[in-house]
Amino acid sequence: MTDFLSVINPATEELIKEIPVDDEAAVAKKAISARNAQGAWAAKPLSERLKPIEAFSQLLVQKADTLAATMTAETGKPISQAKSEILATPQRIDFFVENVAQVMAAQTVHHEPWSALPGTGQLEEILAYDPLGVIANISAWNYPYFVGSNVFIPALLTGNTVLYKPSEIATMTGLAIADLLYESGIPEDVFIPVLGAGLTGAALLEQPIDGVFFTGSYATGQKIAIAAAPKLIKVQLELGGKDPAYVCEDVEVAIAAASLADGAFYNNGQSCCAVERIYVHSDVYDDFIEAFLKTVETFTLGDPTQPDTYLGPLSRKPQIDVLTAQVSDALSKGATLRCGGKPVDQPFSLRGVYFSPTVLTEVTHDMAVMKAETFGPVIGIQKVESDREAIALMNDTDYGLTAAVYCQERGRATQILSQVNSGSAYWNCCDRVSPKLPWTGRGHSGMGATLSAEGIRTFLQPRGWHLRTG
Ligand code: NAD
């Protein structure tokens, strides 16, 4: 009997669609197709792999409105933010397109007359790269175009075939991505969507794949690493964060507050690199909180299909329990609630799960809100007396995705940030990703890197050629 995945609009709790789930047999069949197609795909000249990817990039722009509407319907992401994500994805694709040839290029690393054995030939040593083969791309729902294309674009360009499991919360978007790739000229057995939730993901890991590239939570990432371990295949994990920001005493308070409020609440705080805790020097603490709250008041919460909505519904209903528990834990331990703190009574005719933007102050590291990933519109702001104290608190986490410092001098910022264990370091900015820099987490934030040249090479395996003539 076929199982179905129910796609629910989180803004209205209405059923949008039922999508058949791939059972184990279907997953196995798809894995065989991807295996059979891989050799021919890798054997094509790079130009023939580049062409459809460039066409895909153009189609994203042409169809941005329709694609954004689908993403908003199934994830609740405000329409303006959904469209921004889609329209920014071609910048990442451009980076891969422009750099893949150079990263993949074989290099002669040594060349000499061969004299160790009888004969008079030449010895050439070449470092070359082969694709991994068939890779599984198990993806998250919060930025399906960004986190998806970070993986499947360079994987395809480097000659891998891809078994792509979109999140169960972004399945329609996953199918739209597949349709667009096919329309662009990617063969249907080169990029294959695998549909379903965790069980389907687990079934995918049972297949004879050559690598798994996962974006999601630490808890699932750990399961993936354990399941993949006996296969000794490449495992890359892009996981969650508890990203800190430190505001020094010499900042322009209003500017820092506006930047950090956006970093904390954009996409309802449902970003891996959302600012999740803020440390503020005592000299500017009160002013900063006042400015921060002023910015939060300007955020429009409501119907995600409306262009001026900044905060939509939570994409996942159960997250309301996580947020409510973090707020009540903090309040029971002495935090002050400055705004929000609970689900919103709908001021509009929608039934979805909305949580009001929440700011907690007088927080400490005894509270879950300062230690566990929140992944929602809740932020804790803590007073500190020195750079040293801020560094110690920023490092008091198992995660290590990003960290930010707001201050006047670049030297002070880099000095502080170089002592904080994070994959990305920001001075006077936050919650940003560049295609030219590696996107990488430390500790519970994952292992490996996407984007940058590292994010292309990760889909390749090196081979040393020892070539002797004569
Ligand atoms: P999740 O871990 O719940 O799910 C991620 C994917 O794993 C989904 O496709 C899901 O179906 C699949 N899955 C679940 N159980 C599985 C299993 N046992 N075996 C195989 N696959 C399984 O994460 P989510 O809710 O989709 O995403 C939110 C999390 O992702 C947050 O923690 C966020 O910080 C993180 N994230 C990280 C990055 C990054 O770049 N570091 C980017 C986006 C999101």
Short description:
This protein has 470 residues and is an alpha/beta fold. It contains 14 helices and 22 strands.
What is the secondary structure topology, with strand pairs?
Elements (H helix, E strand, L loop, with lengths): L3 E6 L4 E7 L3 H20 L2 H17 L1 H12 L3 H26 L2 E7 L8 E10 L2 E5 L5 H14 L3 E5 L5 H14 L6 E3 L4 H8 L5 E5 L2 H11 L5 E5 L4 E5 L5 H13 L9 E7 L3 H13 L21 H14 L3 E4 L18 E4 L16 E7 L2 H8 L4 E2 L1 E5 L3 H8 L6 E4 L11 E2 L1 E2 L2 E2 L1 E2 L3 H4 L2 E9 L2
Parallel strand pairs: 5-6, 5-8, 6-7, 8-9, 10-11, 10-16, 11-14, 13-14, 16-17
Antiparallel strand pairs: 1-2, 3-4, 4-22, 9-20, 12-13, 15-19, 18-21
How would you characterize this protein structure?
The protein is 39% helix and 23% strand. The chain has 470 residues and is of the alpha/beta class. It folds into two domains: 4-239 and 445-469, Aldehyde Dehydrogenase, Chain A, domain 1; 243-434, Aldehyde Dehydrogenase, Chain A, domain 2. The strands form six sheets. Strands 12-13-14-11-10-16-17 form a seven-stranded mixed beta sheet, sandwiched between helices. Strands 7-6-5-8-9-20 form a six-stranded mixed beta sheet, with helices on both faces. Strands 3-4-22 form a three-stranded antiparallel beta sheet, with no helix packed on it. α2 packs across α6 and α4 packs parallel to α5. The relative contact order is 0.14. The model has no long low-confidence stretch (mean pLDDT 96). The structure holds nicotinamide-adenine-dinucleotide. Nicotinamide-adenine-dinucleotide binds at residues 138-143, 147, 165, 167-168, 197-198, 201-202, 205, 215-217, 220, 223-224, 238-241, 272, 373, 375, 401, 439, 441, 446.
